[in-house]
Amino acid sequence: MNPPIRFACTGCGKCCTGHHVPLTLAEARQWAATEGQVVVLIEGFVSDGPGMPVDQREHVLGRSYPVSCGAAELRVSVTFAAFNPGRCRNLDEHDLCRIYETRPLVCRIYPAEINPHLPLRPENKDCPPEAWQQGPELIHGQMLADPQLVALIAASRQADRDDIATKVAICEALGMNTSALKGNGFTAYLPDMGAFSTALEQVASAERAAWSVHVVDPALSAKLLEHGLRTTAETPQYYAFIGF
Questions:
Q1: How far apart are the C-alpha atoms of 9 and 213, rounded to whole Å?
Q2: How far apart are CA 213 and CA 201, in angstroms?
Q3: Is the bond into 66 cis (omega within 30 degrees of 0)?
Q4: Whose CA is closest to 238, among 206, 191, 203?
Q5: What residues does each domain of the chain span?
Q6: Alpha-carbon distances of 80 from 2, 115, 192, 214, rounded to whole Å
Q7: How many CA atoms lie within 13 A of 72 on its CB side?
């Protein structure tokens, strides 16, 4: 048995600074409606092939969607996130959240992990040591101790599954059709928010697009070409490639 993990927020504001907060589709609409910037992060993999983490197969399949890439099928995962390169715009001068009652699911779930394959490791979080030395039990053994938190995580995972087809359609409508290979990096887009808001309401009219995978390493590119995928190593103009 692992020792229980306790947690109580100290209100330091570190988790609200320098982090792009993943949003459900409904939350992305709300963020856009209040003049917030959304960043779009895309990664892809081949079913039971390159980029597929075998130990997470069910999880990654459920939150991905098939697209055409060269002569093959690529499954892409799309994250819409609140763009917060610095302090979250909803933090007040006392580092308190102005939208606390309506904050995104991910903020409600923090510091727990949404991915069922990622264990909670306090040393990987921004919270000060005293946050882990007080408060109620967060994890007992390997189980979350708060049933409300369990329900929030389940809702977040379900939203990933429910939203993915629409997110992909929005990406295609806006020309965001270059992915990175899962495990190798992300492609990151900062869409014009006017066009993004329009696409949110007109996804039904979007046509399917041909996708590419951004790969820098020649050996990895050759491996993907063997699977029939279309790759690119050109310097991106409309997105950033964030490699691992």
A1: 40
A2: 27
A3: no
A4: 191
A5: 5-243
A6: 34, 16, 13, 19
A7: 21
CA pair distance 35, 37, nearest whole angstrom: 7
Query: By CB neighbour count within 10 A (0-12 exposed, 13-18 middle, 19+ buried), where does 40 fall?
Result: buried
Q: Residue 187 in contact with residue 180, Cβ under 8 Å?
A: yes
Residue pair 173/2 in contact (Cβ under 8 Å)? The answer is no
Q: What's the predicted TM-score (pTM) here?
A: 0.94
Query: Whole-angstrom Cα distance, residue 104 to residue 230?
Result: 35
Cβ atoms 181, 46 nearer than 8 A: no
Report pLDDT digits (tens) over 135-184: 999 998 878 999 999 999 999 999 999 999 999 999 999 999 999 999 99
Residues in the chain: 244
Q: Is-cis flag, bond preceding 111, omega within 30?
A: yes
Q: Find tokens 């947690």 and name the residue.
A: 7
User: Which of 189, 168, 191, 174 lies closest to 242, judged by CA?
Assistant: 189
In angstroms, rounded to a whole number, what is the distance separating the alpha carbons of residues 187 and 28? 18
* Whether residue 205 has pLDDT greater than 70: no
